[in-house]
Amino acid sequence: PDNAAVADDGWLTIGGCSVRDLAAEFGTPLFVYDEEHLRARCREAVEAFGHGNAYYASKAFLCKAMARLAYDEGMKLDVATGGELHIAISAGVPAPACALHGNNKSVAELRMAIEHRVGHIVVDSFDELDRIDALMAEEVGPTPKVLLRITPGVEAHTHEFISTGQDDSKFGFNLANGDALRAVERARRSSSVELVGLHCHIGSNVFVASSFGKAAEVMANFAAPFDLPELVLGGGLGVPYVEGEEAPTLTQWGNVLRDACDALGVRSRVGVEPGRSIVAVAAITVYTLGTIKPIPGVRTYYSVDGGMSDNPRPVLYGSGYESFLPRAPFADRTAEGRLVGKHCESGDVLLREARLPADAAVGDLVATPVTGAYGRSMGSNYNQITRPPVVFVRDGDARLVIRRETFDDLLATDVGH
Ligand code: LLP
């Protein structure tokens, strides 16, 4: 994170708080977010795209404190479900500052969005237009403003599971087969929606700026004849997870999109929905090293007290991370091994090829950086693990924003005997 430093005693501090003290106070595993870093990224996005045009993709990491922070820094919120909308509203974010996404929104979610008067609904399919027609026939609320999600047929050059722009996708109206045009014609004629713009999202963790430029071009050309006020080009900006990786900044991403749109004569407001690039680098996860199992001639397994339940990304996407000891963040990491969790399966790996200082020992704190996006939010209670707490640190203060789950929480929804 931006505000990380090494204290006189050699320990890592974030936002002026020693990671040793944070672990002692809140226990491990623990997510530590640098609050100033989060705020700086939100401001950078607002600066790069203009007030009202930057939506925080809340799926990356959502709790009331995060929703509020993004909103207070001038972002709107992208929510993908009724649950995300509920948290945003509970945090005090006005519904008109939220946009509802999803390829299979339920009638209940659409009703909720219309009743609360969300800023816009990003309509994904003809079936969804039917559902909105039916709801509006019941007069559930004012005519919703909608964007249509278009699938532009652009490859994002990222992992298959998180690519969404290609024609073979469950998302959106395909441009290539004429669905996109048919959807625009239907929405413009419809009295149950007000079409205010178009949307696309080509994928996530994208490092190739030209992919965004290409999507902007395809969308701008398609949108030109309709002269709609808004064009939202999705999220997807990648972040560096491991040493040697480099990603464009939010500012550079803004420049690429703005240049592309200017060159194409786009007159609409251009919006974006960054998630990962706002929150990923802001956080580290702190674990305690438990069992160390050396297998001579094979490898050493270093087990920590969390795992795939707080970071499923390595298992799901083969994603890489780094690891270090907060007591000696820059120590030479000469011991090689595999950093694994405590779940009951061999796939529960955090780092396939981890490097740690040679003196790493049982009881040491171990941290993995760049875990602020899609870790806590995709976490689970697998093996009835209680999910870790989240603290926001700033100017030497630590603010607990999600407490650790308890065993009682595990039974909170269990009504059977
Ligand atoms: N907008 C839409 C319509 C999206 O579907 C997404 C992400 C975003 C914006 C935000 O994308 P971001 O800026 O965060 O890349 N669980 C995966 C990522 C899935 C992203 C899903 N949609 C991962 O951990 O890599």
Automatic annotation (TrEMBL):
Residues 37-280 form the Orn/DAP/Arg decarboxylase 2 N-terminal domain. GO terms for molecular function: diaminopimelate decarboxylase activity; pyridoxal phosphate binding. GO terms for biological process: lysine biosynthetic process via diaminopimelate. The modification N6-(pyridoxal phosphate)lysine is found at K59. It catalyses: meso-2,6-diaminopimelate + H(+) = L-lysine + CO2. PROSITE patterns: ODR_DC_2_1 (PS00878). Substrate binds at R276, R313, Y317, E345, Y374. Pyridoxal 5'-phosphate binds at G236, E273, P274, G275, R276, Y374. Its EC number is 4.1.1.20. Its cofactor is pyridoxal 5'-phosphate. Keywords: Amino-acid biosynthesis, Decarboxylase, Lyase, Lysine biosynthesis, Pyridoxal phosphate. It holds the Pfam family Orn_Arg_deC_N. Residues 283-372 form the Orn/DAP/Arg decarboxylase 2 C-terminal domain. Pathway: Amino-acid biosynthesis; L-lysine biosynthesis via DAP pathway; L-lysine from DL-2,6-diaminopimelate: step 1/1. Specifically catalyzes the decarboxylation of meso-diaminopimelate (meso-DAP) to L-lysine. Belongs to the Orn/Lys/Arg decarboxylase class-II family. LysA subfamily. PANTHER family: DIAMINOPIMELATE DECARBOXYLASE, GROUP IV DECARBOXYLASE. This is Diaminopimelate decarboxylase. It comes from Ilumatobacter fluminis. The lineage of its organism: Bacteria, Bacillati, Actinomycetota, Acidimicrobiia, Acidimicrobiales.
